[in-house]
Write a structure and sequence with these properties.
By secondary structure, the protein is mostly helical. It has helices spanning 2-21, 27-31, 37-53, 55-65, 79-98, 105-121, 128-163, 187-195, 220-258, 263-281, 283-292, 298-317, 324-339, 344-376, and strands at 167-169, 172-175, 198-201, 210-212, 214-215, 218-219. 72% of the residues lie in helices and 5% in strands. The strands form three sheets. It has a two-stranded antiparallel sheet. Strands 2-3 form a two-stranded antiparallel sheet. It has a two-stranded antiparallel ribbon with strand order 5-6.
Length: 377
C-alpha cells in the first residue's frame, strides 16, 4: 500500500513539475513572438523528454542527494519518508501552478525533506552543514548570478550588434480597422487614403521586431531565430537533466529498500509524467513568464536563454541542485534591469512565491510524515 502511495506521489510530483517548469526554457520564444505558443510547447516537450532520458548519465549525483542521503541518517530513509517528501513537494508546486506562479521544485523538495526529517528524528539529526553548502548556497547564488549576468552581458551583446551594422527594424503594422480620413489637401488623395488599408505604428506588443543586416554573410534575423530555438531547447534539456533525478530518487530509493531494481521504469514514469503535465497544464505559468515580467525582443530572449542553459547545465555536471526556475526568471529579470522595462509587480509576486515555497514544503513534509507514520503504526 505504501509503495503504491509513493508511486502515486512521484507521478503527481513529476506532473506538477512539468506543469510549472516545462515551458520555462521556451518562455522567451513566445514572449518575443519568435514562436507561437503551440510551437514553443512542442519544442519544450521534445527537449524535456530528451533531457530526462540522459539525466542519469549526466547528473547521477543528484539522485543520491535527493534520496536524502547526506542530509539525514540512512536509517531514517524509508518508504514513509520518501512518500511524505514526494507528496509534500507535489502539493507545493501544484498550488503555485494554480496561481500561475513559477516556483522551484528544488526548494519544494528541500523543504519537504527537512520537514519530514525533522519530524522523524528531530533537528539535531539533520546535517545542517550539507544543507548549507550543497543546497542553500547554489539555490541562493544561482538567481543572483543570472540577474547580474544578464544585466551585464546583454548591453555588451547589443553594442556588438550595433558595431556589426545590424539594425533593429521599426515595426509598422497593417490592420483592417475602421479607416479614418487624413486631411492632406482634400480631393481624391484624401479619399484614397480613407478607403485604403490602415497603417499603424505599433509597439512590440503588437507586431514582431526584426533585425536587418548579416553576420558573416548570414541573415541576422535567421541567425538569431535559429540560435534562440536552440537555446530554448538547451534550457528545457538542462532543466530535465537537473530535475528528473530529483524525482526519480524517490522511486529509486523505495525500490532499493524493497530489494527490486526498477530504475529504468522509474525514470520512464517520471519522464512521461513531466511531459504530460507540461503539455496539459503549463499555459498559466507560461503567460506569467513570457508576457508579464518584461517586454522581450528576439535578441534579449536569446541572451537570457543562453545564460540560463550555461548555468543550469554547469550545475548539473557538478551535481549542484540549482533551480532552473530561479535561473531562468533571474535571467529575464536581468534583461528587464538592463532595458528598464521590468514589471515590478509581477517580479515581486514571483519573489513572494519563492520565499514561501520552502517553508510550505517543510510544513507539509512534517505533517504528511507524521500522518503516514501514525497510520503505519
Amino acid at each position: 500500500m505504501l509503495l503504491t502511495l509513493l508511486i502515486t506521489a512521484a507521478f503527481f510530483l513529476a506532473w506538477s513539475n512539468g506543469a510549472n517548469d516545462n515551458f520555462k526554457g521556451v518562455a522567451t520564444l513566445w514572449g518575443s513572438k519568435t514562436a507561437t505558443f503551440r510551437r514553443a510547447l512542442i519544442w519544450a516537450t521534445v527537449s524535456t523528454a530528451l533531457g530526462s532520458l540522459v539525466s542519469v548519465a549526466l547528473a547521477g549525483a543528484l539522485v543520491t542527494r535527493f534520496s536524502g542521503k547526506g542530509v539525514i541518517a540512512d536509517a531514517l530513509i524509508d518508504s514513509t519518508m520518501l512518500t511524505a517528501v514526494g507528496a509534500a513537494g507535489a502539493i507545493t508546486i501544484f498550488l503555485a501552478t494554480l496561481l500561475k506562479m513559477p516556483t522551484s521544485t528544488t526548494h519544494a523538495l528541500t523543504g519537504a525533506l527537512v520537514g519530514a526529517g525533522w519530524m522523524a528524528a528531530g533537528a539535531a539529526q539533520l546535517n545542517w552543514a550539507t544543507l548549507g553548502t550543497k543546497f542553500a548556497q547554489p539555490l541562493l547564488l544561482s538567481p543572483a548570478l543570472a540577474i547580474v549576468g544578464a544585466a551585464v552581458i546583454y548591453p555588451l551583446l547589443r553594442r556588438a550588434r550595433i558595431s556589426a551594422g545590424v539594425d533593429r527594424e521599426t515595426c509598422l503594422c497593417v490592420g483592417s480597422g475602421e479607416p479614418q480620413p487624413i486631411a492632406i489637401g482634400g480631393g481624391a488623395a484624401a479619399e484614397a487614403l480613407a478607403t485604403g488599408p490602415e497603417l499603424t505604428l505599433a509597439s512590440t506588443d503588437d507586431c514582431v521586431e526584426r533585425y536587418r543586416g548579416s553576420f558573416f554573410g548570414i541573415d541576422a534575423q535567421r541567425t538569431v531565430d535559429s540560435l534562440h530555438y536552440l537555446s530554448g531547447g538547451a534550457v528545457c534539456f538542462a532543466r530535465a537533466v537537473n530535475d528528473t533525478p530529483k524525482i526519480a530518487a524517490l522511486l529509486l530509493g523505495a525500490t532499493a529498500l524493497s530489494g527490486t531494481t526498477l530504475s529504468t521504469a522509474a525514470l520512464l514514469l517520471v519522464a512521461l509524467a513531466m511531459a504530460a503535465g507540461g503539455w496539459f497544464q503549463s499555459r498559466g505559468v507560461a503567460e506569467t513568464m513570457s508576457l508579464r515580467i518584461t517586454d522581450l525582443n528576439p535578441g534579449q530572449g536569446l541572451t537570457a536563454n543562453l545564460l540560463t542553459a550555461f548555468l543550469v547545465l554547469g550545475a548539473s555536471r557538478l551535481g549542484l541542485p540549482v533551480s532552473t526556475t530561479h535561473v531562468s526568471c533571474g535571467s529575464i529579470f536581468g534583461i528587464g534591469v538592463a532595458t528598464r522595462s521590468g514589471n515590478v509587480r509581477t517580479i515581486l509576486q514571483i519573489l513572494a512565491t519563492w520565499v514561501t515555497t520552502l517553508p510550505l514544503g517543510l510544513a507539509l513534509g512534517a505533517i504528511l510524515y507524521k500522518l503516514l507514520a501514525t497510520l503505519g503504526t
